[in-house]
Amino acid sequence: MAQNTATIADKVIDNGHFRMNWKAGRLERCEICPDLPKGTIVHGYGAFMSHTIWAMTGEGRECVKLSANDADSYFSSPFHTLDEYAEPIAKKYGIGFYYDLDATPATDEEIAAAIERGRAFLKEEEERKAEAARAWDEGVAAVREKYAGQFEEKPVQGWYRDAVHVAKNVRKDLARNFPGVKFSVRKDGYSRLNIEWTDGPTEDEVKAVAGKHQDACDRDRWNEDLWVYSPTHFTTVFGGVENIWYRRDISPERRNAKKAEILAICPDCGGDGFHYSTMEQHGGAFDLFSLGDIAGLSWINADSVARVVLAGQSFYQAPAPKPERKAKAQARPVSAAGLQLVDYSEKAVAVTGDTKPHADTLKRLGGRFNARLSCGPGWIFSKSKAGEIREALGLSAE
């Protein structure tokens, strides 16, 4: 066996390209594709048995799609250049392009029409991508404006899935939305965070806040075994991770209190409990639904019911707001011994004397201090303020 394997390896090295013929169970030499006449039909086979029809354009190895153009098809471009080792349809063995010399060739008119459709399709795709890019930029700008000053933007240089950076933003977000709750936010590699806490908000409530720090995740369209991660508007600006894991613990006091409540309703939940299918045989078992949805449990006991019921309950209470500071009470008018109200001009009056203790009141009344008044340093006012000044300072009318 080792000798045969070495022989095959030698052939691959010495004689060029080979492919595996899975039907025959052996390697076969790849032959150079011959020059294909204009109109030769080419079959394109993609994932999930997708099939499209193409035709050679007469321009070297270029072929054009005769099938309808579709941006979501496996081979989305309307034009393709055949590989020099393209195989005939008779040797089809997987995803790729195969020429068919036996099929009726496409006419010049069909090829010309397909080329025109292809060019129009590419133009529409360029316009669609330009519009999508514009909408994306607007979304990014809106996110940057909405959260300005709340989070640190991701570094311009470096890997944008920096879990250390994202963890800092998540801690800020949780502290702002759930003040008083102690969260543990730890990185796990470069693309995952673990969030843990006790009691407080439910997992769904925490996800609603922290979830925006996670990239979008979808199944790959052509391979369901793969997940495709892509940035959102938010993670484009502030960075994101591929996964966030949530773990909420319930304090022993709450858990034990709930278990006691469950046992009071259905004593048979003690010990190992019973299977869900035998609920009708246990008194009070159906009354457990008043506590929460336990239909997903296959085994019923105090622990399992408490776990499900408590998971759906929020124990978070926002701290009472701090009382607002009372505004400073305005100083009551005080006796103005040592003050004089001077008739300064036709339009103004002045307050002179020991004004320093009364500076706040004089300023509140709209006065301006002037150290160079002809009557000496003092506060100057409009003459219309004279009565208000006397009342505020307790000055008697002249």
Secondary-structure topology with pairs:
Layout lengths: L1 H14 L2 E4 L4 E4 L11 E5 L5 E6 L5 E4 L13 E3 L5 E2 L7 E5 L7 H39 L16 H15 L6 E4 L4 E7 L4 H8 L5 E4 L7 E4 L2 H6 L4 E7 L2 H14 L8 E2 L23 E2 L1 H10 L27 E5 L4 E6 L5 H6 L3 E3 L7 E5 L3 H8 L5
Parallel strand pairs: 7-8, 10-13
Antiparallel strand pairs: 1-2, 3-4, 3-8, 4-5, 5-6, 9-10, 11-12, 14-15, 16-17, 17-19, 18-19
Explain the overall architecture.
The protein has 398 residues and is of the alpha+beta class. The protein has four domains: 31-114, no CATH class; 163-249, 2-Layer Sandwich (Alpha-Beta Plaits), CATH 3.30.70; 252-311, no CATH class; 339-393, no CATH class. The chain has nine helices and 19 strands. The strands form six sheets. Strands 6-5-4-3-8-7 form a six-stranded mixed β-sheet. A four-stranded antiparallel β-sheet has the order 16-17-19-18, covered by helices on one side. The longest helix is centred in the N-terminal third of the chain and has 39 residues, at 108-146.
For this entry, give a set of tags.
398 residues, alpha+beta, Alpha-Beta Plaits, 4 domains, 6-stranded mixed beta sheet, 19 strands, 30% helix, 21% strand, flat
Could you say what the CATH topology of the largest domain is called?
Alpha-Beta Plaits
Q: What's the CATH architecture name of the largest domain?
A: 2-Layer Sandwich
Classify the beta-strand content into a percent band: 15-25%
Radius of gyration: 41 Å
- Helix fraction by DSSP (H/I, runs of at least 4): 25-40%
Q: What structural class do you assign from the helix and strand content?
A: alpha+beta
**Strand line-up of the largest beta sheet:** 6-5-4-3-8-7
Molecular shape? flat
Unreliably modeled segments? 327-335
Total number of domains:
4
How many E-type strands? Answer: 19
The string of secondary-structure elements, in order, is HEEEEEEEEHHEEHEEHEHEEHEEHEEH
Distance between the termini: 127 Å
What does the main sheet amount to? 6 strands, mixed
CATH class type of the largest domain: Alpha Beta
Q: Mean pLDDT across all residues, rounded?
A: 87
Output the number of helix runs.
9
